[in-house]
Amino acid sequence: MRRRPTPGPRVPWWLAVFLIFAGGRIVTTVMLAILANNQAANAWTGAQPSLLDFSSLWDGRWYNIIAVSGYPSELPITAEGHVGESAWAFLPAYPAIVRGVMVIGSVPWNVAAVGVSLVFALAATLVFYKLLARVVPVQQALFAVVLFSIAPVSPLFQLAYAESMQLFLIAVALYLLMLRRYGWMIPVILVLSFTRPAALALALALGFHWIYRFGKRSRGRFPMRERVLVAVVAFIAAVGGLLWLVIAGVVTGVPDAYLSTELAWRSAYIGYQDLLPFMPWVLSSQWWLPGLWGYLALAGIVLVFIVFMLTPAVKKLGVDVRFWLASYGLYLIAVFFPQSSTFRLLAPLFPALGALAAPRSRVYRIVLVLVSLALQWGWLLICWRVDGYDWTPP
Predict the structure, then answer these.
(1) From which residue to which does the signal peptide run (predicted)?
(2) Count of domains in the chain?
(3) pLDDT value at residue 7
């Protein structure tokens, strides 16, 4: 049931959201500029690179390669005979859009990439507010937008990464799910399938949604047409989540080309191993904390997530948001190997910020903002700044 409207801001909602977003980007820009001015020469740039060059490090170079040269027809093979790192680990939608901007606007890669990320980040922020405003008071939704705009990994909103586009598509898909505009989710899901890995998690969330509505059909209508439509959309999401694996296999002639390429990145930690569902987190726990402490830490993380999902603040976000949080959490723990980039991979859980924004205490909110800003600076120092042979990629 939709909440009774509460007094909103004195300015239009979109302007309030835009101003919050702009404030967050100013803060992040200052942080990035400070780090760029102190950045030593590295594999991507010389010393003291420009802000735009500094914003295009790490995976931004892979997206640059894709935008300019596309994907290799043959996979690189290491001296030990394993599949090495290549562009196939990165999906094509974001670099394709950036390429279009480069051609139409006659601008270099770093300008186009950062610009596209910013536009999608703003769009994601606007949709995020509209999504939350359906289930929580307006002021709570606005504070959640504040947390979204200054989150520890919010620098991604203005870096040459596909995360902004991914978060926008997830926000739109969840908003359409809440509105029960299932058919409109299909094009969003298909684009998401070629942006960042998340479509399989969305398929699971749609499955939970179908089961929930079917179980509640005596109190709320769930006509046959909608039952079929939700099932079809869930199926499309599941297929979409596997399409890039098939395409990579067909083009390169190696059936497991995508998975082997992804596994090449974690080989620096645990060597080359097959992907077994839910094992990456176990292996990671033993890499970071060998023995009993590693297992206890992993169990603690899972327990904290479960307890958080059962809190009243999360329940007030609505069943569809909770289905997404649970589905993406399961997906993450099933396939990803936790290391420094895990902070970035947690970004699709952003609807949970609506629950963190629930307490109205001014002290609580000020402390939370300060902690978020401190963590953002820490993330940039640890993950984005390049420090010699850096093993903490973002």
Answers:
(1) none
(2) 1
(3) 53
